[in-house]
Amino acid sequence: MPIRIWVLVLLCAIAALAYVHRVALGVSESSIRADLGLSTEDTGQINFAFFLIYAFCQIPAGMLVDRLGPRKSLAIFGLTGAITMAAGAFGGFTGLMSSRLAMGVAQAGLFPAAIAALARWFPLSQRGRASGFLTASMSLGGAVGAYITGQMLGVTTWQNIFVILAIPGILWAIGFFVWYRDTPAEHWQVSTAERELLAREASVSSGGTRQPTPWMTLLQSRLFYGIIGQQFFRAMANAFYLVWLATFLQNAYGMSKEAAGQWTSVPLLGVVLGALIGGAVSDAVMIRTGNRRLARSGVAIVSLVIGVGCFLSAMAIADAMTALMVITLAALLTSLSNACAYTVTVDAGGPFVGSLFATMNMTGNFGAAAFAIILPKWVGWLNNDWHMVLLLVGGLYLLGALCWLAIDPRKTVLE
């Protein structure tokens, strides 16, 4: 098996572990409140603090990745994230808040570093699929983490769970640093054929540059604004599945809390499948046409527009299960663009992939946060007609598709 596949396996593993660590607090929330005598406002503040510092640390962490390279960065951020997971078990509210803040900093650097590693190890014709697996592993990590944490709460304390879940991350960081190398040429297990393939299809190397990030150049790039714009609108719309879907099903279709919670997982499965399929489709178009813009922007625009059509169709459906299946199809289609978005940062970032991806990811987090404010106001303006939420979500995805018109990954943000 090519060594780059093992690199991808390791990157997917740490991405999944990061989401396991994220969801553990949410699943354990009621136990933590009861044990520490906290209120829901207290635990809400802890979650808010994590996402706020996670968003604001994206750019500094991405710049650090560009300077250190993926190997050192991933080992540092992976180890720090795991240690802070365990530290959350100690010190009451203050300890939990401090550990989540530190985890937010660590996880802010994980994903820019993973993308920088992908840029070095995968040729142009395979980056879509690699990005698809990476994005899908995040959703899978969240689902698996929620299940494991829930099962473990039945047999042990939340403090023990936090410590136990930290162990794989510590082992991963040590093993990754020992085995991984920043370039295929440095790795002793890479075959001559694989080394030649990667050298032949390589774009500009990413990570490890001593040059400061040229922010003025990036801020004058139309491509740069297209990349962060599509992420802002897509992440805003994606928050519908992660945060509001169960509430939507209860209010729009009268589902019980239990049923809505169970059926929420179906569109999320569509998100996972969409990421995987999107990466494969993007690479297939790339191989067949050799046109990077068609493979990335073309696939993203077509899938988003068709997905918007599904959302609009679901608005007219009265049966809850039928509407849910159409929404799931929309989730799958709109998620085809996930891999395209990750891949385009690799294509267009040049030696500053970490900084570009971090800026894109930060912008997306702000979009997701904005959705939490916009959706309740939207429903209020429309007399609590929750069916109209689908119009809002579809409109956001359409705006994301329009941003893709400005993205030409045949260029870099430095041009």
Automatic annotation (TrEMBL):
UniProt cross-references to SUPFAM superfamilies, sorted A to Z: MFS general substrate transporter
Annotated signal peptide: none
Keyword hit for Nucleotide-binding: no
The keyword Heme appears for this protein: no
Keywords from the named record: Membrane, Transmembrane, Transmembrane helix
Positions of transmembrane segments: 46-65, 74-95, 101-119, 131-149, 161-180, 223-246, 266-287, 299-318, 324-345, 352-374, 386-407
Predominant place of localization: membrane
MF terms (GO), sorted A to Z: transmembrane transporter activity
An example Gene Ontology CC term for this record: membrane
Membrane topology (UniProt): Multi-pass membrane protein
Protein location: Membrane
Residue ranges annotated for the Major facilitator superfamily (MFS) profile domain, each copy included: 7-412
UniProt-recorded name of the protein: Major facilitator superfamily (MFS) profile domain-containing protein
Organism: Tuwongella immobilis
Lineage: Bacteria, Pseudomonadati, Planctomycetota, Planctomycetia, Gemmatales
